[in-house]
Amino acid sequence: MMTISKSRAAKLGALVATALLATGAAPARKPAAKPAPTTANWAATVTITADGSHLLGNPRAATRVTEFVSYTCPHCAHFTKESDAPLRQGMVAKGQVALTITNLLRNPIDLTIAMLTTCGDPKRFVVRHNAFLATQDIWMAKLNTIGEDRQKLWYQGDIQARMRTIAADFDFYSMVAPWGVTHAKADQCINDKAAFAKLEQQQKTVQAVGANSTPSFVLDGKLLDAHDWAGLSQALSAKQAAQRKGSI
After folding, report:
1. Name one Pfam family in it (predicted).
2. Taking Cα atoms as reference points, which of 99, 136, 70 lies closest to residue 232?
3. Are the C-beta atoms of residues 159 and 115 closer than 8 Å to each other?
């Protein structure tokens, strides 16, 4: 579990009938229309929320989970690896749970990756999101080879220039290239002030719910005292049990 101070969170917070016409004659009876088929795989459905977060699955699911994630948090990478099959590919795909992924920014590296994961088709967000977390140990290892003088550039001057420096230092440009994101396109996304404003809104969401560590979870509007898949899974099981009991 990665924890940030309230002052740090606040600072980061400074940084979307048909009418039937009568004919006079009784219309011929038609067979009852079949119900519209349900989405086969809700995990492929992505909705952008008002603050720019990504909601995966059925927006009307009975159970709603928000995950607050930091891309430089090793616990977040572990959570994604451990939970992806049962949660996203399981409960979310079946339409039982709607999962919203919201950024909790702890440093400018988080910010840079957050801007790049929103770069491209929203339906492919999960691919980009999971890829950065799955390879976290590889690109984070480069931190040991980047000198202090270079790292100072991440915290000085124009924010977009700082993110471009980070993308170059960690070779994120090469990482996003297989997704059809050229160097120029990546820079365009990094320079997207509207996307940056959405991330600022997400930090306000973080503060509003009181999340100060990663990963953190909100289940149906309640911030959980759980920071891993074991804890979230237990809360989800209890929620589903209560729903089944209520339907009897």
Report:
1. Thioredoxin_4
2. 99
3. no
